[in-house]
Description:
Layout: E1 2-9, H1 13-24, E2 27-33, E3 37-44, E4 47-54, H2 60-67, E5 71-79, H3 82-91, E6 97-98, E7 106-112, E8 115-121, E9 138-147, H4 153-164, E10 167-175, E11 180-187, E12 194-200, H5 206-214, E13 218-226, H6 229-238, H7 248-255, H8 265-274, E14 277-281, E15 291-297, E16 308-315, H9 323-342
Parallel strand pairs: 1-4, 5-8, 9-12, 13-16
Antiparallel strand pairs: 1-5, 2-3, 3-4, 6-7, 7-8, 9-13, 10-11, 11-12, 14-15, 15-16
Amino acid sequence: xxxxxxxxxxxxxxxxxxxxxxxxxxxxxxxxxxxxxxxxxxxxxxxxxxxxxxxxxxxxxxxxxxxxxxxxxxxxxxxxxxxxxxxxxxxxxxxxxxxxxxxxxxxxxxxxxxxxxxxxxxxxxxxxxxxxxxxxxxxxxxxxxxxxxxxxxxxxxxxxxxxxxxxxxxxxxxxxxxxxxxxxxxxxxxxxxxxxxxxxxxxxxxxxxxxxxxxxxxxxxxxxxxxxxxxxxxxxxxxxxxxxxxxxxxxxxxxxxxxxxxxxxxxxxxxxxxxxxxxxxxxxxxxxxxxxxxxxxxxxxxxxxxxxxxxxxxxxxxxxxxxxxxxxxxxxxxxxxxxxxxxxxx
Length: 346
């Protein structure tokens, strides 16, 4: 199971095509249009995005945007076991329909209200894709994050485990003086596809704020794998992409840890300058270098406090997610949330 494409519903696909080209370094591939909807396809490395907007009030995009802000509406996956998935869906009495507009056998299902998933059959080993290189080094999707309402985490995790064979991995409980969340990370055993699912622990949680603004459960952010996070962050920043800020105390705390992080003074200076989060994973064997998980997060891209991107670099095959970075992200979003409340925007 591997991601083929991610579709967004936006107000103006042409304008957002230019945004992704000019700010994120994506390359335009093609355009499709019918009587109701226009779509632009862009790519970066193995990543393919579809940006759709309405050209007529009867378009499904127009209807969607009446009740929800722009965001992710459809995840397209290649799967090698479509018949097995069909059997499981039938056993669970889950409705699905045959997919249209693709050259492969497939189905489309709605996991939660407003978020569909398209499964296309692909029997090739490895599910390889053609990859194009870009100046940003953004080359693959590392993971997706889905926010669900209180009480829905367990059943949604169960659904993905039973239908798609995703395996539960790390669990997180993040709690600050203001609010918190529960999170479960799921991983596909063959392809390494990672999906994190969050639910709020209080009415004022940032996860609940997302749900309130989004009008439903949905994809909170997509993590983009990069070759060199400092270069990518610098390029995107100079192009006008805005990132969440990190307080100085975060780096002071990291520098004071024992054992110390394996970073030179110049490397620390780079991370602090561009406000990149870092987690250290000690080497398991003497012949291996220490692994570093490096992450940074954009501000919400559509105006509403909903969808954003993450840049992530995994040095020396860093695995999973560090709780320190997870907590730092939560606090960064919480600071923005509190600022909106102080400014009377919520």
